[in-house]
Amino acid sequence: MKGSNSINVVSLFHGCGGLDLGFKRQGYNIIWAIDFNKAACETYRNNIGEYDICEDIKNVDSSVIPDCDIIIGGSPCQGFSNSNRHTHYLDNPKNFLVKEYIRIVKDKQPLIFVLENVPQLLSCGNGQFIDEIKFQLKDYDINYKVLCAADYNVPQLRRRTIVIGSKIGKINHPHGYTTQYRTVADAFKGLNNTIPNQLDYTHSKQGTIERMKYIPQGGNFTSLPIEFQDSRMHSDIFRRLDYSKPSVTIANPRKQLLLHPTENRIVSVRECARIQSFPDDFIFYGNLSDKQQQVADAVPPLLSEAIAKQIKEYIIQNKFWVA
Questions:
Q1: At 276, phi and psi to the nearest 5?
Q2: Beta strand residue intervals within the chain, DSSP E
Q3: Do 114 and 241 fall into the same domain?
Q4: Could you tell me if 252 and 292 are in contact, meaning their C-beta atoms sit under 8 angstroms apart?
């Protein structure tokens, strides 16, 4: 960064671009990005920029990736089962994308990396999973913490592990901005059908709609008559949002059966985007299923921006870069 006019960023597993949007807002220069999902790449190119490639990362030689100051990414990670496994979590085939992230960081040697993942990353194997990551990236001063998006003005109780690795000294996580959480009502203020993606929602069957009518704000499947309940249901199924509170964590709204606070329907892509803190001019592309999954998988831009701001302030304070 010294002697450079910009802080250059490479983005791995960029999805629709929530993590990238936060860094871009803070003035970082995204020079290269990659994701495998074609619809997510279309969304990314139309909202973030046309500097990504749509490719399976395991087929990409790190030599084609430009040198950079920072690598960011939210690698999918599913292998958290402790059964028949006491260590070597990175060898679990379900975690191969984490290994790919590590491969590229080790090969490119950025000054800083940011890895976003689910909270279980830290608890899996009583901390052995994160220990394996730390061992693989032992050249870095690694700091990790579970952050709640609501602390950063995101109207959602979304918790995510943020791992920050640095070769220029330990970088702390940003302090939360507020304890007066924004609510679903705040998020939905001014919504109307002319806003992009507001009419993008799953139209449920009549039988499902009849079940929705039993669910009060803040309720879930337990409000259904017993004959409509299923032993396979869990607390996030048939969850109706409460206008007076932050949202629960947004997963795929169709699979989650996440309900509008007052209307008997699943929430729209735009409503999910508002809850995730995306601006209304950020438009999602692909078919309905694509859009729903993109917004569910995204890092809330306001959370990303808080992380990006914290890192930039550290870089400036320690004179590695002058804004």
A1: -80, -10
A2: 8-12, 29-35, 52-54, 70-73, 112-117, 141-148, 159-166
A3: no
A4: yes
DSSP E strands in 122-193: the ranges are: 141-148, 159-166
171 and 268 within one domain: no
77 is catalytic: yes
294: left (phi over 0), alpha (psi -120 to 50) or beta: alpha
| Residues 192, 190: Cα–Cα separation, whole Å | 6
- Cα separation, 256 vs 238, whole angstroms: 7
Strands 70-73 and 159-166 come out as unpaired
pTM beyond 0.85, yes or no:
yes
Q: What is the pLDDT of residues 116-175, one digit of tens each?
A: 999 988 888 788 889 999 999 999 999 999 999 999 999 999 999 999 999 999 999 999
At 313, which amino acid appears? Answer: E
Q: What is the DSSP letter of 71?
A: E
* Other Cβ atoms closer than 10 A to 228: 15
Tell me the two tokens of residue 34.
Answer: 């990659």
Can you give the CATH number for the domain in which 307 is found? Answer: 3.40.50.150
Distance of CA 107 to the CA centre of its chain: 25
Question: Whose CA is closest to 37, among 49, 22, 52, 19?
Answer: 52
Catalytic residue among 16, 41, 68, 77: 77
Closest C-alpha among 106, 91, 189 to residue 140: 106
Say how far apart CA 323 and CA 312 lie, in whole Å: 9
**205 and 79 in a common domain:** no
